[in-house]
Design a protein that fits this description.
Elements (H helix, E strand, L loop, with lengths): L8 E2 L4 H12 L4 H19 L18 E4 H15 L5 H11 L2 E3 L20 E4 L1 H21 L4 H18 L6 E6 L5 E5 L4 E8 L11 E3 L5 E3 L24 E6 L1
Helix pairs in contact: 1-2, 1-3, 2-3, 2-4, 3-4, 5-6
């Protein structure tokens, strides 16, 4: 933890300063405007304590946000206001990353509590989700694959739980408005999807099947669906007798998980 004596300014914002900051953030009309509102209101107030002005800083004299600190509760309230406003533009992820470099440091102050009023919900009233015909087939295939894992390995098995949990998490993300209120979903493989968002952000929901490896000691063979074995590690040759023991049977649905890839 950094000692408070190293900060140029370390103090709580007044109620009026915090109210102004959240109001200015709430009134912005763009993602860039959110960051500008933080600089003008939060750092404008903190710099005034040191007898300085924000416009004294620029390319030749850069502002170091880490030299300023506000209570953690106020930091969280301002961050949430920024994220809430960014939801209108589908840029919550962008703002979350930018705030890491823009917001002041924090310190604990039990006497300072967060505002009781939650930030406004700036999300559009509707999320337009366009799913291609091929993508609907993929979604059905993914659900079917999870069901087959449950039937083969059992619904309490690791194979079923991991696959189903990862599919549900990523499917839920597709309905999120964090990346904009218009989303197009297309096919990206037999069990994978490509998601293009209104904000310009594109990501994949990709299925990663578990390799069917031989479980015999010192064998590095991977066994295909047709029973053909191949060695991926030359230093660990396949079973000399060719009698492999696959991690899961040839007729079993492939265990695996879905993951988010940007």
């Amino acid at each position: 933890m950094t000692d408070h004596t190293t900060f140029s300014v370390r103090r709580p914002l007044t109620d009026a300063e915090l109210t102004l900051a959240t109001a200015e953030i709430d009134a912005t009309q763009s993602t860039a405007g959110i960051l500008d509102a933080v600089l003008r209101t939060v750092f404008g107030a903190l710099l005034a304590t040191a007898g300085e002005l924000l416009n004294s800083y620029g390319p030749g004299r850069k502002l170091d946000p880490g030299q300023f600190a506000i209570p953690a509760a106020q930091h969280a309230a301002i961050t949430e206001a920024c994220l809430s406003r960014a939801a209108a533009f589908g840029t919550r992820l962008t703002i979350a990353m930018d705030l890491l470099n823009v917001m002041p440091s924090t310190y604990d102050d039990p006497a300072v509590i967060a505002p009781a009023t939650p930030p406004r919900d700036h999300r559009p009233n509707a999320h337009v989700l366009t799913v291609s015909r091929e993508a609907t087939d993929v979604i059905a295939a993914c659900a079917r694959h999870c069901g087959e894992l449950g039937q083969y390995f059992g619904e309490h098995s690791r194979q079923y739980q991991e696959a189903t949990g990862s599919w549900q998490r990523n499917l839920t993300l597709m309905f999120s408005m964090d990346f904009g209120a218009a989303t197009r979903v297309t096919r990206d493989g037999e069990l994978s999807l490509l998601v293009s968002c209104a904000s310009g952000f594109t990501y994949g929901i990709i299925f990663h099947p578990q390799p069917r490896r031989c479980t015999r000691q010192d064998c590095a063979a991977v066994i295909g669906n047709d029973g053909t074995a191949r060695t991926i590690n030359r230093e660990s040759p396949a079973c000399p007798d060719g009698d492999h023991v696959p991690a899961y049977p040839l007729d079993a649905p492939a265990p695996g998980t879905w993951s988010f890839h940007s």
